[in-house]
Amino acid sequence: MEILKPNYDEVRGRVRDFWGGFGEKNFKIPKDYWRIGEKDYQEIRGFTIGQSRRLAEKYPSSSLNPNLDGEQGLLAHIDMMTELLGKLWHYEEFRNLFPEGTSFSFLKFLALVHDYSRFIFNGPFPLVYVD
To answer: Where along the chain do its domains lie?
Structure first.
């Protein structure tokens, strides 16, 4: 059985390429970040998805490219986590776990970043297998 050695150079390159986009965007996150607005959240989400798609274009045959689309894809996973948080947000006991004034956009941001590295590199396993 052949043992495959991880491609650390590609991983480093993918992180460098992804991270480089942050400097260009110059996001304006409020000091009280838990009050992030919907516009800011959508900008971060769009940036994240765009950067991930650019990596897939740069490394078209890489096994590290995430499956973003489809019902088993990363975006469906993020949307499902957001939906779950939306249901919990209806309960005062859950909302009280966060600082006063927390926006639901902040919870959507948490759903987006809980698997953030998967936007940059993902292994050859399907998302549902790993989770």
So the answer is: 15-130
